[in-house]
Write a structure and sequence with these properties.
Layout: E1 2-3, H1 10-17, H2 20-23, H3 27-34, E2 37-42, E3 47-49, E4 57-63, E5 66-71, E6 77-83, E7 88-89, E8 103-106, E9 110-116, H4 117-126, H5 128-154, H6 157-168, E10 176-179, H7 184-190, H8 195-204, E11 210-213, E12 216-219, H9 222-227
Antiparallel strand pairs: 1-2, 2-9, 3-8, 4-7, 4-9, 5-6, 5-8, 10-12, 11-12
Helix pairs in contact: 4-5, 6-8
């Protein structure tokens, strides 16, 4: 379902205004950028696009979560990224020829801002401020990707899970109760783990007082979790 961008509600507008490629723009250019945009509402498990589709747009998640993944010839899936509200995806194709190189699928009901690729490219060619904002966003995404690759190689599965849980804790020490923002199968993909590896990692973290009940996580010692 595609809506007019004038129907953007205050919460979604606040999420959009915090994105890297809009934060640094002047009010006039922010309006110009938003004129390239439409709002898309999609149900859970709906394809946003598939590998090989023409790369006609990039997206910002306003609500819900979007899963980026690839498939091999046998149908095996490999998660690339779980995009949360405020995250953008596919903007890396602004200056690249060719179709989308991965699949994008909603993990739950989602609201997306869809930016027309050709129009933004034209605007960036005319306005250096827009080009700088886009490049700053791409640079930050590259750094984030490098950090993910390094973490996958430097840390064990339990350490990756511990780092993620610690990032959700509202306190630096003592006890904490947290709720996973999405299902555990998505968390496994986000951390580059098979579901069974995630289960083993949670078992390893019991020594730090971590107990798991569905999406609810009890942490007995936040500092021990950070130090794991």
């Amino acid at each position: 379902m595609i809506n007019d961008n004038t129907k953007l509600n205050s919460r979604d507008r606040a999420v959009l205004m915090k994105t890297r490629f809009l934060q640094g723009l002047s009010p006039a250019l922010t309006v110009s950028m938003m004129q390239t945009m439409t709002i898309v509402s999609l149900p859970a498990r709906r394809q946003v696009f598939r590998t090989g589709d023409p790369a006609e747009a990039f997206y910002c998640v306003l609500g819900g979560y979007v899963r980026l993944y690839r498939l091999n010839k046998d149908g095996r899936e490999a998660d690339i990224r779980i995009c949360a509200p405020g995250d953008t995806f596919a903007e890396c194709l602004l200056y690249a020829d060719g179709p989308y190189p991965f699949h994008a699928q909603t993990a739950e009901n989602a609201t997306l801002a869809r930016f027309d690729m050709a129009t933004v490219r034209k605007l960036a060619a005319e306005q250096a401020e827009v080009a700088r904002a886009v490049m700053a966003s791409l640079s930050r995404d590259l750094i984030t990707t490098m950090d993910c690759v390094a973490n996958d190689r430097l840390f064990t599965a339990p350490q990756r899970v511990a780092q993620y849980l610690a990032s959700l804790c509202p306190v630096d020490d003592g006890q904490a109760a947290i709720r996973l923002p999405f299902q555990k199968n998505l968390l496994a993909g986000k951390l580059g783990l098979a579901p069974e590896a995630l289960s083993r990692a949670f078992s390893s973290l019991r020594k730090t007082g971590v107990t798991v009940r569905g999406r609810m996580i009890q942490v007995g010692d936040v500092q021990a979790l950070r130090d794991f």
